[in-house]
Write a structure and sequence with these properties.
Elements (H helix, E strand, L loop, with lengths): L1 H15 L4 H6 L1 H19 L3 H5 L6 H11 L4 H28 L8
């Protein structure tokens, strides 16, 4: 599951690298693929066992839940959630997951 989360997060970062917010919002293809990758990432994160999530308090689970809900909407809140996720939430989450993977590898061993 960690690999899926990592790949989806890296996909979001690659798609939005060196892209201004205005260009991002104008590009339907980039926005749609970013949304798809971010939804996959959010679903995977929110699907982690509750015990594992409780051991990773630095990840903002409530914001991930809110972001996931917004990804299914159409309009300005959707675009804001998508941009915020791509620029802030995804990078922060991937950074924390790297820390947890090094310090607490048992969190990523589920049967």
């Amino acid at each position: 599951m960690l690999d899926l989360i990592q790949r989806a997060g890296e996909g979001v970062l690659t798609l939005t690298e060196d892209v201004s917010e205005a260009d991002f919002l104008r590009s339907r293809l980039t926005r749609n693929e970013t949304r798809r990758q971010m939804a996959l990432l959010a679903d995977s994160l929110l699907g982690l066992p509750e015990a594992a999530r409780a051991c990773m308090p630095e990840i903002d689970w409530a914001i991930w839940h809110t972001t996931r809900v917004e990804l299914d909407r159409i309009g300005p809140t959707h675009d804001e959630a998508l941009w915020f996720g791509a620029r802030s939430l995804v990078p922060a989450t991937l950074s924390w997951l790297r820390v947890y993977r090094q310090e607490r590898p048992e969190l990523f061993r589920w049967g």
